[in-house]
């Protein structure tokens, strides 16, 4: 059984159908990526997984349990954490306080070890731990958003556009961390990205979403070499 199985999911914003029957799976220990143009429905899918907005139709099964109708806090407690698009850290809180918020539903006994792991991955956060989140650079805020998600000890990490608006050097650093999390800690990652090259290079498997529908799927290598994907996402296309 797949860790995450999404079947026939439709999601609406008012009368606008944002997801039009999405089917996908994520196996335990995989990095699965979804690429697509801005507005394709990628972020809506991640938000639907977390219960806001709700799926109007279809099932979302996580580790054998349908979570489609569950409240968001119950979904999080099952071991799903999201680093959302636009980072959405707490700007007035310090770096350390942001990380404490990530750990709010976990056992206090794990806190010091988990904090040290985040600081090992992102040494700049250790240096900035007393600084307000809102005064960090964009790249540092992204590191903080991922670190905060990791503090909840997730079984499944959802990353929404982690490279958006960041300098190439920082993008490489973020993707290296995702690779390390998967390889060394066995973290299962579902990654939504416009940066198709980096995302598919990293992924075991990938999906392409167009207008709320999945139009292609395959291994990361297969999609990187697919003429349609290359034309649309790797050669200056939409």
TrEMBL record:
Keyword vocabulary terms for this entry: Amino-acid transport, ATP-binding, Nucleotide-binding, Transport
ABC transporter domain span: 4-236
A GO biological-process term: L-amino acid transport
Pfam family, one: ABC_tran
Top-level taxon of the source organism: Bacteria
InterPro entries with a match to the protein in the record: AAA+_ATPase, ABC_branched_ATPase_LivF/BraG, ABC_transporter-like_ATP-bd, ABC_transporter-like_CS, BCAA_Transport_ATP-bd_LivF, P-loop_NTPase
Entry's Gene Ontology molecular function annotations: ATP binding; ATP hydrolysis activity; branched-chain amino acid transmembrane transporter activity
Annotated family: Belongs to the ABC transporter superfamily.
The protein's name: Branched-chain amino acid transport system ATP-binding protein
């Amino acid at each position: 059984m797949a860790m995450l199985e999404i079947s026939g999911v439709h999601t609406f914003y008012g009368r606008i159908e944002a997801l039009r029957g999405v089917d996908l799976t994520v196996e335990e220990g995989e990095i699965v990526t979804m690429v697509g143009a801005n507005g394709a429905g990628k972020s809506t899918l991640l938000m639907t997984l977390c219960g806001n907005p709700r799926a109007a139709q279809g099932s979302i099964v996580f580790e054998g349990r349908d979570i489609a109708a569950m409240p968001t806090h119950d979904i999080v407690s099952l071991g799903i954490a999201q680093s959302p698009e636009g980072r959405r850290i707490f700007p007035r809180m310090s770096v350390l306080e942001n990380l404490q918020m990530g750990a709010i539903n976990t056992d206090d006994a794990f806190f010091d070890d988990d904090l040290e792991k985040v600081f090992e991955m992102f040494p700049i956060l250790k240096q900035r731990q007393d600084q307000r989140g809102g005064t960090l650079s964009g790249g540092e805020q992204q590191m903080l958003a991922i670190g905060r998600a990791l503090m909840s000890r997730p079984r499944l990490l959802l990353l929404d556009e982690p490279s958006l608006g960041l300098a190439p050097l920082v993008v490489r650093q973020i993707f290296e961390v995702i690779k390390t999390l998967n390889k060394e800690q066995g973290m299962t990652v579902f990654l939504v990205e416009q940066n198709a090259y980096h995302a598919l290079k990293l992924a075991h498997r990938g999906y392409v979403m167009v207008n709320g529908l999945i139009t292609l799927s395959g291994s990361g290598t297969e999609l990187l070499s697919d003429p349609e994907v290359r034309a649309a996402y790797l050669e200056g296309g939409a």
